Amino acid sequence: MFDTRTYGHRTAAERVGPFATRGFLATVWRYTASPGQVPLLLSDERGEVALVKEGDHLGLLGDEDLVDYRSPLGDAVDLLAEHFRTSGRSRSFRFDSLPSAAADVITRALDRVGLGYRKAPHAETAVVDLPDTFDEYLAAIGKKQRHEARRKRRRFVGEMGGLRVATFEEPGPVLDDFFRLHRRSAGRKGRFMTDPMEEMFTELLSTDGWRLDALYGENDLPAAVVIGYSDTDGYYLYNSAYDPDLRHVSPGVVLLTELIAATIAAGAEVFDFLKGSEPYKFRMGARPRPLLVVEGST
């Protein structure tokens, strides 16, 4: 879908992880594109935007349930304006999952060609701004949550015979464990892990920056596994699964607390839970990061 030539552009919005990169978007496209969708990569020395056309509708490439952040690269205002100007009328558009700075690029391009639009709240991610030390983090989440974090860790160690976190940067048996645990999840989450999704996750784990982290007790079967991406800014938690038979020892929360500690120790600035407003994220110190949608018709 995409050639390998790039211009080294930075994302218009800061701290969006891998989600605006060609490699990530190409992987998502391979496993989720629908018949009738046509990818359109606008790219030159000024900037880059990955779009998708479907009939008379224009959007940003990639399923919004899989692409947590959208952002043009470089200074893409003129690039987008030229496309809007030459693509004709009678077309609807919807650009979702935009941090404020990314939405500004799109609205400036629309303003430049005189197209009307609606900009509105769309979703939110949950981001922990990390202090310099784990003790400072524990102090920041408050006495009750600090007590809960320590209590759950002690209980896990006591009932599981120990605690160990291991990191894996390529596909292997632990990825199979992740798939197995994910399929045991209740409801929509359990149904999410189809064969194409397994193939997509396998491909992601084969690329730089992606990794699995698994939580163990005294045996070699993981109690919880997460897949995420890390860069110099921080860690982005993409998906997770835990053994439902061990929910009484809170393996998911225990693993996440260990990962936050490790991310702080690595000197990163954020731990990003990505999309979703589940209460546990905010109990663990996250703040909401609003995402916008820009939509209308030409």
CATH topology of the largest domain: Aminopeptidase
What is the H/E order? HEEEEHEHEHHEHHHEEEHEHE
- Report the total helices: 10
> Helix amount, in percent?
25-40%
Radius of gyration: 21 Å
Inertia-based shape: elongated
Mean pLDDT score, rounded? 94
Annotated CATH homologous superfamily of the largest domain:
Gcn5-related N-acetyltransferase (GNAT)
- Residue windows where pLDDT falls under 50 for at least 5 positions: 1-5
CATH architecture of the largest domain: 3-Layer(aba) Sandwich
Q: What is the number of E strands? A: 12
Characterize the largest beta sheet: strand count, sense, and whether it forms a barrel: 12 strands, mixed
The CATH first-level class of the largest domain comes to Alpha Beta
Domain unit count = 2
Strand content: 25-35%
Distance between the termini: 27 Å
Which secondary-structure class do the elements indicate?
alpha+beta
Structure in words:
The chain is of the alpha+beta class. It folds into two domains: 22-124 and 290-297, Aminopeptidase (3-Layer(aba) Sandwich); 131-268, Gcn5-related N-acetyltransferase (GNAT) (Aminopeptidase). 36% of the residues lie in helices and 29% in strands. The chain is built from ten helices and twelve strands. Strands 1, 2, 3, 4, 5, 6, 7, 8, 9, 10, 11 and 12 form a twelve-stranded mixed sheet that branches. The chain is elongated and about 65 Å long. Mean pLDDT is 94; it is low at 1-5.
